[in-house]
Each structure stands twice: as C-alpha cells, then as structure tokens.
Amino acid sequence: MKTKHTLPQPFKGIVPPMITPLKDETNLDIPGLERLINHIIEGGVHGLFILGTTGESTSLSYALRHELVARTCEIVDGRVPVLVGITDTAAIESLRLADTAEKKGASAVVAAPPYYFNLGQPELIEYYEYLVERLSLPLFLYNMPSHTKIIIEPDTVKTLSKYKGIVGLKDSSANNAYFNNVMNKMKGRSDFSLFVGPEEIMAETVLLGAHGGVNGGANMFPELYVKLFEAAEKGDVLTVKSLHGIVMEISSKLYSLGNFGSSYLKGIKAALNIMGICSDYMASPLHRFREAEREKIANNLEEIKSKMLNLKH
Amino acid sequence: MKTKHTLPQPFKGIVPPMITPLKDETNLDIPGLERLINHIIEGGVHGLFILGTTGESTSLSYALRHELVARTCEIVDGRVPVLVGITDTAAIESLRLADTAEKKGASAVVAAPPYYFNLGQPELIEYYEYLVERLSLPLFLYNMPSHTKIIIEPDTVKTLSKYKGIVGLKDSSANNAYFNNVMNKMKGRSDFSLFVGPEEIMAETVLLGAHGGVNGGANMFPELYVKLFEAAEKGDVLTVKSLHGIVMEISSKLYSLGNFGSSYLKGIKAALNIMGICSDYMASPLHRFREAEREKIANNLEEIKSKMLNLKH
Amino acid sequence: MKTKHTLPQPFKGIVPPMITPLKDETNLDIPGLERLINHIIEGGVHGLFILGTTGESTSLSYALRHELVARTCEIVDGRVPVLVGITDTAAIESLRLADTAEKKGASAVVAAPPYYFNLGQPELIEYYEYLVERLSLPLFLYNMPSHTKIIIEPDTVKTLSKYKGIVGLKDSSANNAYFNNVMNKMKGRSDFSLFVGPEEIMAETVLLGAHGGVNGGANMFPELYVKLFEAAEKGDVLTVKSLHGIVMEISSKLYSLGNFGSSYLKGIKAALNIMGICSDYMASPLHRFREAEREKIANNLEEIKSKMLNLKH
Amino acid sequence: MKTKHTLPQPFKGIVPPMITPLKDETNLDIPGLERLINHIIEGGVHGLFILGTTGESTSLSYALRHELVARTCEIVDGRVPVLVGITDTAAIESLRLADTAEKKGASAVVAAPPYYFNLGQPELIEYYEYLVERLSLPLFLYNMPSHTKIIIEPDTVKTLSKYKGIVGLKDSSANNAYFNNVMNKMKGRSDFSLFVGPEEIMAETVLLGAHGGVNGGANMFPELYVKLFEAAEKGDVLTVKSLHGIVMEISSKLYSLGNFGSSYLKGIKAALNIMGICSDYMASPLHRFREAEREKIANNLEEIKSKMLNLKH
Q: Which UniProt keywords apply (chains A, B, C, D) (predicted)?
C-alpha cells in the first residue's frame, strides 16, 4: 500500500461512484474490478468513491464490503484518493468499515443518514456527531432523500460543517434550489467541498461554483466527465453545452429502460459488461437486465460512442 | 384594450408570477395593483404571469379571479404579454377563466394539473387534451408536484407538445435532473418554451439553454432578474455568478422566516408592503407576517438593497 | 322546503357520500338524482352527504355545486338531514356554499383542509377558526390526507372540538391507529360525532364506539350498510362478520378495476348506471369506465347481489 | 436447547416484538434480557418476536444480532416459539441470520422488504422468492411502509402465499382498509396467519378474524394484551372495549412524548427500565429519554397501573 492521499482543500473534480463488479452474490469479479479501476483512473478522474448507492453497498454482505475496500485500495495503489461509503443503519458497522478504510489507505469516508428509522434534524445532527467523534478519516455528508427518507437540511449542513472532521457534502437530491441554498450558506468555505451526484446537473452546479461531481456515467466514460468538469470550472459555456448534451444522451439512452428506480444502475452495469470491462451481476434485491433490454443498451451505446467521436473531430 | 400580444417564438425572458394585491378577502387593492404592475414592467420584464401559486390563485373567489384578469390587462395595456393561470380542479372553471383571459387581451394561459384527485399520466394527458381542444389562447403546462401531487413526466411533456396549442412548460419542481431531461427531449423545438419557477435555479438553466424564469423575486426587483437572465443567455458566467449571488441572498434573507411552505410568499408580500408598493394582505388559509417577522424582513431588505447598490458601482 | 333537521346528538348512523349524477360537464342528471336520492333514503340511512370526494365536488363548476344543494334539499324534503361538503381552497367560496346550504335547509356542512398550499397544524387551526366564526350551520371536519396532503392531527381535532360549531369528524385516512387515537381523546364527548369514510373499516370502528360511516357503497346498497351499522352498534359480532364479508366483496369486486385512485368512484358510478338508477358520466379530469370494465362490473354486481340474497334466506 | 416449536396452524395470539436490552452500543444487558423474557412469557404470550423494528434490529451490529438470537433461544428454552427478524438490505445477511435462527431453535423468521433501494412489486416478489427458496424456517412477510417505502400490495401477499414456506403476514401499516383487503383475499387459508403490529388496532382486527398482534406494549404488560386478544377472539365486545381502552391509554400516555417517530420505542424502553426490568440504553441513531421525559413516563405509568388494578376489582 502506498501512503494514502491527504485530500487537497478544497477537494474537487470528478469522483466516480464505482459500481461493484460481482461474480455472484458473495464474490467480487476480481479481474473485472481491476480493469474497471484502471479504466476509470486512466480517464483522469480526481478520486474514486466506492460503496455508494451505485456500488450497491447496502446489498453486499459485510465481509464483501470490507474485502472491496482492501482490494480497491490495493489496485488503486495511491494513484487517486479513495473515498469509502460507510452508510449504514448501525453506526457500529459504519465505524468498523471506516476502520478498514483507514487501515487500507483510503482518504475519506462518506455517510448518508441511517435509512430505517425516521429521524428529525436534531437526531441527525447527533448521529453525525457520534460518527465524527469516532472517525480518524475525514467525513463527507451524503444527502440522498429518495432512499433515506430524510433531507440533510441546509442549516444542518452548516451546523455540522463546524466540525473539522466533516469536510464536504455529496448531494444526490437533484434539487438545485436546495443545493444552491447550501452553496450560499457555505460560501467562503474553501475547506468544505460540495459535490452533486446526478450527472444531469453536474455541469451547471460547477459553473456556479460547486466543486465537482460523483457521477455514475464516469464508470463508463471517465474522460467525458472530466472534460465537462474542467470546462465548467473554467466557465467555458460553449464546451459545457456540447459535452453536457452528450451526458444527457447517456442519461436518456442508458438509464431509462424499465420501470423502477434502479434502471440507472442496471444500465451502467449492462454497458460496462458490453464494453468488456466487468460482470453485470447485481446483488439481490436488484437484477441485471434481461436480453431484450441488454440489446437496446448495446445499440444505444454505439450511438453514444459515435456522438462522442464526432465531438472529437 | 390594446390589441393583445401574440407571443414570440420562442417566448423567453423574465415573466414574474405576480402576487395579488388584496385589500381584504374579497377586494383587490387597486392602487397597489397599479403601482405593482408599473413597477414590474418598468423593470424590463418580458411578460407578466397572474393567478399562479405566487398569486394565491386558489385562495381567491372566482369573481375576484375574473376581476383580476380584467384589471391587469387594462393596466398593462399591451406593454407586455399577460399570461393567466387557469389551474383549477374543475376544468369547466378553467375554461371560463381562459375565456375571460382571451376577451380581456391576455396572450396565453397556464395550467397545473388538477390537484385534488390523484391521477395517473394517461389521465393527465387526457386532461390537457380536454383543455387544449377548447382553448383559443396558447397553453403552458405548469409542473408543480409539491402542490399538485403529480409530476408531469418528461414523456408526457413530449406527448403533449405535439399539440399546436401547447406552447411551453413552467417547471416549479426545482428538480434540475427532471428539467434537463425535459430540455433534452425538447431540443430543437424553438416553438416550445421552457421556464423554471424557483429563482434559485434560473441562472443555471438559462446558461444551459432554458428560455427564462417565472421568478417571484421579480415582483420586488424586476431589473435584477432581467439582468441575470440576459447575462445567462449570453453565457457571461462572471456576471451570472455575481447577480445569482444576490438572488440567493434574497432567497435566504426574505423567504426563509417561519416554518411552512408559504414563507416565500409571505416574505414577498411583506417586502412589497415595506417598499410602499401594495398591501400585504393574504387570503385565507394563509396569513401575512406578524410584526416580529415583518421587522426582520425590513432589516434584511435594507441589507439586500445595499448589496445591489454595491454591485452597480 | 321542509323545516330543516337539527342534527341529533350524537349524530350517528350511515350517511352515504352521494355520487353526483351528471348529464354532462355542466348539467345534472335530474331524473337520476331523484331516483338515486329516493333509493338511498328508502334504504333507511340516517343522513345524506353531498359534494364530498365521492360527489366529485372539486370537479364541478360552482354554479353546479350550488344547484346540486338546492335540488337535493328539495328532493330530500326533510326526510333525512342533508350534509353539504364545502371543501375548497378559497375560504370565501366555502362560505358562499355554506350560505346556500343553510338557505336551502341543509343540516350541516363538512370541510376538508384546503388542498393546494402546504399548511402546518397552526395554520390549519386558524383556517377552521376562520370558517366556524362565519358559519351558521354546524361543521364537520374531514380528514383526507391522501388528497389534501395534510393530516388533521388528533390534538388539532381536540383543540377544534372546543368550538360549539364544530360537531364532528369524518376520517377517510383508513388509518385506524389515528382514528382510535382521536376516539380516545374525544371519549365522553357525546356531542362530537366520529365517522369513518372507507366502508372497509366501518364495522370495526363502530364496534369500538364510533358513530357511523360515510360509505360510498351505500349509494348502491344502503340497506346493507345500515344493517351492518346496527349490528356493530349492538355488538352483534356474528352478524357484523357476515355483513362485513359482503362489504369486502363489494370493495374487492367493484372498486379495484383499473390502475388509479379513482377506480372506487368509477366502479360505483358504473354500478348505479347498470342498476338503472342514474348516469355514469364523470366530470373532467375523471372519466367513466369503458365497455370492458363496465362488463366486468356488471358481472361482479350479479355475483354480489346473489350473495346478498343468500344472506337473507 | 429444547427441540424447537413447530408453529401451530394457524399460528395465533400475542407475539410481543421484544425490545433489545442493551448495556451499551455493542453489548447486551444479559440479566435484563433474562428478566424481560421471563416477564413476557409469564404473561401468557403465544410467541416471542426478536429483531423487529421495536428490537432496534437495524441499529445493532451483525455480531450482536446473532448473539441475541442465541441468547434468546437459550433463555426461552422452548417455552414459546421464537420468531426472528431477518430484515436486511443485503439478502445474504438475512440468510445468515436465518441460519443462526434455525440452528439455535427458533421457529420462524420475519422479513420486511429491503429498505434502501426503491423497488416495484415484481422486484419485491422476486426478492421474497429468492429468500424462501433458501430458507429452512417458515417465513412471515412484514409490511412496514413507513420505514421501507414500499407496501406489500394485497395481490403480492396473495401471490407469495402460494409458497409453502411463506406462512403469514405481520402488517404494521395501521391501514385497516389494506389489512381487511388482505384478510378478504386470504379467507379460508387457515394455514396463513395475519397479525397486526400497532396495538391500537389489534382488538378490532381480531374481532373480524385476524390471528393476533405483534404489539410493543406486551413487553410491559403481556397479560393485558393476551386477555384482550382472547376477548376479541371470543367476540366478547364488552371486555374488548374495556381492555382496548387501557391499551389506548398506554398508547396515549407512554408513546407520545417528543417529536419523532421513535417516541413509541423510547417510551417502552423507559417504562421497562422504571419497572426494574432492563436497561433503557438505545443504539445509535436513537437515544433514550432524558430526565424530563423519563419523569413523565414514570408518572403516567403509575396512572396506567392503577387503571389496570381498577379493572381487576
């Protein structure tokens, strides 16, 4: 293990939420994992986030989560900072995972609110205080109301940002009024990083000052998202519009098959499998696409690739 | 009555959702209405939207709604296009209001989904088809899921956009992944206008190609929103950031007192009253701010005005 | 017009939420209305509730609502108390309708919370206080969170029950923990009537002390619901189980076709039309069943009728 | 370990969802656990359910969950059937816990839907099929929409009930229209047990044919709930009303302090501690009551006890 990265301040850029390549319910697809990590890092990303929603974290056994942390840190080998999702309903398991993350050389941990009991904001603040007092790695808050049933209110973000160990927020609400409200409350705090999850909104948030994106599509096309981020950071609106247009095509063509919330995740795994990178196995309760959807993904993938080529020429 | 405006294609810019100046539960504050309309139009806006959520439409008696349409068109006198909210649970009352709008010289009508029964998308499509077949004025869809309990899905917008009489969408969801998805589906359709409601997200959506904002703050500071729109349309990111910063201060300082969803609306009415423009009376079930909040609004208003002045120098 | 009924204390029994027989979007089916009212009253019900959710109140024009009040009171002619739904987003229109109700001889009015703006409990209390101070007829609260987006909390019911003019609650939440909580808070208050809307839960609530049901199925089979109520009031569990079984069959066979929340309402209107009582026209945004569903309703209706016959022998 | 109970068909009665006595975040309060189990069993209950919502299952480390299964089965020692909650977002961990349950002599397992990803009904059916094919113990479905964000639709219950290994449903929705709908669909299936969670609705559901209650209050007063169940099963409405009245007092006086959803759980733990039975420690993210609430609980507990005494005399 290389010495771990200390996160720059502010930490910024594209930090793909890595899917978890699985052989079956209890085993990692190790060669796939290696190919995927290398593929992503070679795309120029600024970090790697494992065990998020896109990583199917909550569907994996605990043993597998710990194993994934170890293997990922090993393969990454210090090339980029590794962020580890420790979201759990049991704080004690979050801390155990954070401990492994620290030992294996990860740079930070990320925690969404506990997602079983319905909490109020005061309980949420106490919860994050409980974590931060016991963590050695820096902590990112993770706002994910569609899955956790609770919003980390802007005032709660502000309150928690006084802790040195809490260094940023990943917001996956897709509610930009909320996100801009948080940005406004945190302005001037270059030590607190603000990322959005949904790639459909990354460009505009970075144009207005956000620090980056934790965008699923960067599993497939890391370079595209890096370029879009760079253009947005520079305020190069023309390039942003053109690259953002491709991101919207990816969203529209790869993430919208089927009826349920998981079509995004199924689409990415199918595409990565078609691209020859890793297995598309999904842990229960989700299931990979069947042949019909897979074929559509394959066709749409070709279309997207040719659009990306056109762009280059 | 001047000959009414035919909407340009695409219709774009700042179209303030006008608050309704009220003397009491059943009477308009007519001098206030006149001052307010003149104040807004002199700010350079591109249209005026009455009887929306910000206009407390659903709290007004039917007689008052019809009266407001007549008075507004009279006072506007053809200076800008007038858009009239006809949102209702009873389609027949929507049509009656549209009829008044047409007769008095309004340029378009705007309808959110009926908000009592829980509908599915097919029922929603049938509903808008029912309206559009009976309307003589062009119709804007109005997505307002927090109040209507239903999202106008992007595919529904696409389906409905084939009707010549349906000419745009006002989206107040604040969900930019949704909005960008709609923009992507409608790209190339310069005859279909895409506006957002929440002013906190207007700048970024226009930067990426949206047509404008229906922003409550433009009741108070129309010029600010017009300038922000123009900067965003030009892709002038620096100016956008600076003006957007003031909009976020307005949102943070004027719209966030009190506990409930209506603090935005109470804040605008209080501010307009403090500015000497019109009454702050609110129709039941809402109530204007009491003295304590009103004082805070007055102080915060001063702060915002001085920031705006600094900007000019 | 007969002298109106003063409601007994406590008011109890079966008070069918009458569907509104419509010829088309703007006209009542008058002969159907007469047949329906007579059919219901001859079933032995204890009151009649018009302009509720089942009555499509929010889909009707204001003129039609007022006309329905007048016509119904005329046809009922003092045989049972008439309760009039005045639920509206505009308090002023609620009061106007209450005025008509009072003039035409109705006995009480019923109001769900305003259903457009998102209110808090304090605003809800102020709203009902506003109404009750201006009403001459007694008022029933109407809890309908699936449509209004707000629960009338048990403590709010308790607070409002101190007003002499507020005489009861109709709860359509189907949440019996909520309802039992309200019953517990109001115990000993024989002057405050507690009714439930969903017929699927009427029997058990009356067994435990509730005052009655506002059950849609009583449009079709008033006698069944009256007998079930009487058995439940007496604590005759065997009869309750047997009659409740038929009510559940009605619910299962007539209210569950199609995908959306309105299948209950479509089912009742179809059945009444098949029974030769009145038109099944529904006001926009809802639509009556098409032929396929109608045939199923016809078949299921036969099945239910034969079960009811078996019961009698 | 005694030979485990095979569940009778139908399984019925009072099956308390046991709270988990904790010394601290990672250790059981073993003497408290022993006192609690004996207290509950001596009250005449028909089974014991551990690791449910009331048992704070999702807040406990995995090691602790496995330990609790072992310890409980040991202490119960075959006196009543033990049901083990295996609800988890990772199916593999559910299966591991079910394996421990089987080895230690539990009689059945109970699983709510996975509660992180948003699933549709087809995915939910596949999920339960996945489980049931791999389980050796019988499985109860557990409907808990407020925590899991998904309803197990009545048709889904019906579909899943064809599997021999799925033997019942615990419904904690408090929606009795839903529950009666399920009862109606499952009538005649004496091999499929229907329980409700909320004690506020247990009496009425058993009066109409449900099999029993999984009621938190039975941690404190097992005998009360057993007597109420027996009276309801016999159709003894007078006794039901009287005992149900006390249950409603317990709900009103012990479960309603504080603002959030967990006041029920905090109330039970505080009361058990005051009664000298076990620790009131709660695992993160929840916290036990502070002194002020605890005093109120102590006072209210005295009141309730004296009501129960009056009843006996």
A: Lyase, Schiff base
Q: What is the dihedral of CA D90, D96, D100, D105, to 10 degrees?
A: 80
Confidence at residue A1, expressed as pLDDT on a 0 to 100 scale: 45
Both tokens assigned to B231: 């900067």
- A281, two tokens: 């196995």
- Structural domain contains residue B307: no
Complex-level ipTM beyond the 0.90 threshold = yes
Residues 6+ apart with CB under 8 A from C40: C16, C18, C48, C218, C219, C222
Domain of residue A54, CATH code: 3.20.20.70
* Spatial distance between the Cα atoms of C157 and C148, rounded to a whole number of angstroms: 16
With H, G, I as helix, E, B as strand and everything else as coil, classify residue B85. Answer: strand
pLDDT in tens, D64-74: 999 999 999 99
| Tens of pLDDT, residues B144-189 | 999 999 999 999 999 999 999 999 999 999 999 999 999 999 998 9
Distance from CA of D146 to the nearest CA of C (A): 12
pLDDT digits (tens, 9 = 90+) for B275-312: 999 999 999 999 999 999 999 999 999 999 999 887 76
Q: What is the pTM of this model?
A: 0.96
DSSP state of D216: G
> Could you tell me if residue A249 is inside a domain?
no
B29 token code pair? 């504050």
Q: Which band of pLDDT confidence, cut at 50, 70 and 90, is reported for residue B5?
A: confident
Contacts with D, C 175-214, CB within 8 Å:
175-178, 180-181, 183-185, 187, 198, 200-201, 203-205, 207-209
The answer to whether position D124 is within a domain reads: yes
Length of chain A equals: 313
pLDDT digits (tens, 9 = 90+) for C34-90: 999 999 999 999 999 999 999 999 999 999 999 999 999 999 999 999 999 999 999
Q: Which range marks the domain in which residue C140 is found?
A: 13-227
Q: Does residue A293 belong to any structural domain of this protein?
A: no
- Judged by a CB distance cut-off of 8 A, whether residue C133 touches chain B is no
Q: A111 forms bridges with which residues in the sheet?
A: A141
The reply to whether residue C201 touches residue D181, judged by beta carbons under 8 angstroms, is no
* SS3 state of residue A108: strand
Is C313's pLDDT higher than 90?
no
Give the residues of chain A that fall short of pLDDT 70.
Answer: 1-4, 259-260, 312-313
Measured between alpha carbons, how far is C198 from C181 in angstroms, rounded to an integer? 17
Q: How far is residue C310 from each of residues A95, C224, D219, measured CA to CA in Å?
A: 65, 13, 45
Q: State the smallest CA–CA distance between residue D136 and chain C in angstroms.
A: 34
Side-chain-side CA neighbours of C56 within 13 Å: the count stands at 29
How far is it, in rounded angstroms, from Cα D251 to Cα D268? 10
Q: How many domains does chain C have?
A: 1
In angstroms, rounded to a whole number, what is the distance separating the alpha carbons of residues B71 and B32? 12
CB B84 within 8 A of CB B51: yes
Which residues of chain D make contact with A156, given a CB cutoff of 8 A?
Answer: none
Alpha-carbon distance of C142 to C167, in angstroms, equals: 11
Pick among B24, B27, B61, B89 to test the C interface (most C CBs inside 10 A): B89
Q: Chains with ≥3 Cβ pairs under 8 A against B?
A: A, C
Going by beta carbons, is chain D in contact with chain B, meaning 3 or more pairs sit under 8 Å apart?
no
CA dist D296 and D254 (Å) reads 9
Using 50 as the pLDDT threshold, list the residues of chain D that sit under it: 1-2
Kindly identify which residue of chain B lies nearest to residue A235, measuring between CA atoms.
Answer: B237
